[in-house]
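Input/output pair, single chain:
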Amino acid sequence: MPTAHLPPPEQALASYGDAHVVRLNALWKLSVQPGLSDAERIHAMLDMAADVLDMDLVMLGDFGENYTARYVSDRLGVLPEGTQMVVEAVLCHAVHLSREPSHIPDLREHPVYANHALVNQLGLRTYSGLPVTAGDDARWVLAFLRQRCDVPPLAVDIAYMGLIADWLGNTLHQAAHKKLLEQIALTDPLTGLPNRRAAEERLQMEVARFSRDGNGFALVLLDIDHFKMVNDRYGHAVGDEVLKVMAHRFEAGQREGDWVARWGGEEFLFVLHGSLADDAVGIMGRLLNQCRAEPVQTSIGGIPLSFSAGVAAFEPQDTDIEAVLERIDHVLYQAKANGRDQIRLAGQRGGKTPWNGSLLRQALADGRVRYAAQAIVDLQSGQVVADEALARIETPSGDIVEAKDFVELAEGLGLMAEIDRQVTRDVMRTCVARMESGGSSGFAHFVNVSPQFLARHDLVEELLGNAMSFCQGCGVTLGPVKPIVLELTERQHVVSLDKLRADLQPFIDFGFRLALDDFGSGYSSYLYLANLPVSFLKIEGWLVQNMSKDRKVAGIVESLANFARKEGVLTVAEHVEDAETARILADMGVDYGQGWHFGRPQLV
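Output:
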């Protein structure tokens, strides 16, 4: 937004005459002088006006519950900026009410102001007050005072004051707009908290302050548990209500000087001043207890929630805030992977292997993505008819990291598509090698694909190209149905089923089949089933593990098997851990089983 400018002197000559060219030229140059902030330009303008008009005190103030002198040029040294006065006792009050200028040549002769403190104690005699309008804001008044008594001001001086008042009004109006735009740019519109950009700027200020005074602080990264399920079950409007309520709780639970920002999605970042890490854990523990005890009240009723958090202190040896953020990010994901509803301190037991975004990116760059295959068995014949590829990461030291320890991190960082890319390519290579060595072409390979992967058209085209190349190079003639089965999960919200269908269509046309993973765990899987040509339902492991304990759960599993059979869809029970469970599932009509009873995942 451009800075408010006075009209060039040549445009004002008709009104003021040649004698005032120097005065106007000085004002105009000041109004267009580069490199000044709004506040500096206002101060310079008031100082110039005081010199030109020989005033002892010039102030620009606004009326609210009190009158506040916001900008002051004070030769007498009697009125500091920010001074507040009772509204009725202020000389400018009449101007504020009438919105008309007032010029009093001798305050001692005025029936109202003769005994005013400014007159009796400071000896001020001459007063001029002008209303200043900043857009729709009419709170402002510009006042000129001096100790020397004089005749009423000349018309040219009154016009000069008016010119300054108009310029100040424009400047204040533009400054207010600039502040509003900056506030919008740095504020999360849903919760009203600072957004990530604002938080990153404030973190740099915290580090600079720490280097000056050595007063440390703790950082906390918090994630609302199972928030995706809230969105899936109740809709995003209710999810927004939850975020607003939780943000209010987090803000209300802070001490003076602490602050919290919305870091992204359902993640919040806290900065706790003067706190050791243990202190921060205690503070967050109280918030977590409140969260557990008080369901979030929404338009559909109370929703019980918890959160997971990672905590670390910014310590004297820390020089890089990003490194500390990586540490709390790592322990947050550890907390989520180990049951959620907990607070983890960076560096405590269980946090020695810092699996974070940087290491994940490096593993991808180094090609250290692997997969483990877990057998899928025909429950009637006991034959292995398929397997599922489960992503793994190999560390530089040769350790293998399971998917549960990095999938959520990869999804949060937008790296899941690249993991899917490498796993699907390796699965197809294994598929070709198995068939060329005499394996059945009917053996299916299940592989997970994320919405992140499907949304990347370049990766979709690459995968199809790889599939065609492998099929053409394979010595086995395949029919219209190919051995690859793409598993869809509910880990990520899919905005448009039409778009999902369009993303999947090239694979369906090529002969890949679709499976719904964790079926029965959420609402989205039923939408997938209704809208997509699904060949397999993989029954949620929790249902399988609990059906022997709960008759209703067993009924759900059997109903799913009956429904799928009628629709020509094959069922796969996950988490089959013993022979009795396998027998019950076979009696129910479930087609396939997968779990430790049939074998643990084996690295390929």
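The longest strand covers residues 384-394. Confidence is low (pLDDT under 50) at residues 9-16, 348-354.
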